[in-house]
Fold this protein.
Amino acid sequence: MTTYADRTFTPPERIRNFCIIAHIDHGKSTLADRMLQITGVVDERAMRAQYLDRMDIERERGITIKAQNVRLPWTVDGTDHVLHLIDTPGHVDFTYEVSRALEACEGAILLVDAAQGIEAQTLANLYLALDKDLTIIPVLNKIDLPAADPDRYAAEIAHIIGCDPDDVLRVSAKTGLGVEALLDEVVKQVPAPEGDADAPARAMIFDSVYDTYRGVVTYIRVVDGRIVPRERIRMMSTGATHELLEVGIVSPEPKPSEGLGVGEVGYLITGVKDVRQSKVGDTVTSQRHGATEPLTGYREPRPMVYSGLYPVDGSQYPDLREALDKLQLNDAALTYEPETSAALGFGFRCGFLGLLHLEITRDRLEREYDLDLISTAPNVVYRVLSDDGTEMTVTNPSDWPTGKVAEIHEPIVKVTILAPSEFIGAIMELCQSRRGQLGGMDYLSETRVELRYTMPLAEIIFDFFDALKSRTRGYASLDYEEAGEQQSDLVKVDILLQGEPVDAFSAIVHKDAAYAYGTTMAAKLRELIPRQQFEVPIQAAVGSRIIARETIRAIRKDVLAKCYGGDISRKRKLLEKQKEGKKRMKTIGRVDVPQEAFVAALSTDSSADKAKK
């Protein structure tokens, strides 16, 4: 019988943990594919493009949403090493995924397209890695492209991270050129993980996923001690204890192993079906003689954008709650709480890190859990102070206080824009029109400039990125981070149907933009709501003041059809009788807004494509 002491663990000095930081479409997933092929963990027959992107949405959109870890064997100078690669997303909305991956690594490959140069979101993730004292290996990809200019961009990267341009490696992930030399550099430059093999076990949970058959699968990075199957473990934040049914590695498919030692990355399965038992950032230790001090967890993500998610069929509400529970396990940045709407019924108010995060979450809920959902227009969190001194947090226009408001505070963000210098004027004009304040400007090279602005978050979440791309012919890149709040002149715009406010269509906007929102929404609803037997006024109002109006004309039956010729008084009598009937109908009639009209007016599909960049 094998005892735990006989089990062989990879010595920490032969382990290298690293991740890849890159902008969308700079070749991150392609480089991971080449590494899988060159190290031999995936044979030619089983190979497919974007191998580590497991979700349909990732493959369709060509973006990485979830960080994926994989174990790669690599031999340098006759010594066998184990490389743990964590493939990270590149979009600003998934920065939380990146920050968790960085905690599990000692090094990072900074991958930059040799035809485009470094982008704003890559720069933000690079600063995250430098904050955590990770070893950075700069790499230029796509050097085989005719448009590549490696010398220029190597100088740019060297200027940013303070290295020599000759230190920047040059590879082509597509052809495999230079990838073997890159793996050698990872072994040479990235430090081995540090930890005490004889100390009580401590492992950090950096991700988890729900499996229908096996329950919660938890991904961990071991810091001290060792984790072996069939022992009992304890979650340090909840105190829950479980028996380990399986411990394994991902290479690139899950494989059970004899255990995980210091510095190793792998997964564990306890058979638990309760999704709240495995919290990202928690520390796993042994139940007997366990550790007393937990590892430093992750900073809780703060939602930047709120939107309501409602099932089209009200009976799917319990299914939506269960789906959100399971999805939150896999996406720790998602927050939600129940809410009701007079128009849409029962649903959830969900917090997201950005517009793309909202779209991806809605897509995953619809595909993976077979739900039909409506998402309301996204809005941000406001802090409102009333005249009587009470303070409230508003995430939904229907929560807006009815009394006099003394002060309104809205969230602001620090925006970093990288673009060719010829577009400075167009970018400044756009930012000023969105209430932006210039914080500074730096030239990264003669042709590339970095602009820093402070702007209200509400001005960014709709179509700012789209407008920026169109004004710079697609060359600009954007990154933003929260920067506190500021006092602003905001109002709530109500949409009234026949004098009755419809809470689902209300919005909180800046005073100067209220008229534009009111006229746009009223015109949109006039097209979407079917004509009734009576005339229906659609009004946009700020408080008691009407700022826009559209009218849905009544359906009229031709009561004069039978009056061919004859006396005019006969016709007038029939028309008056019809008019009386319409008036009476209007007093008792209700305007039925079809579900499709809510979906079309409230859904964010028009802004979804803008976030797919």
Observations:
- The chain has five domains: 4-189, 202-286, 305-376, 383-487, 491-605.
- The longest strand covers residues 405-420.
- The mean pLDDT is 77.
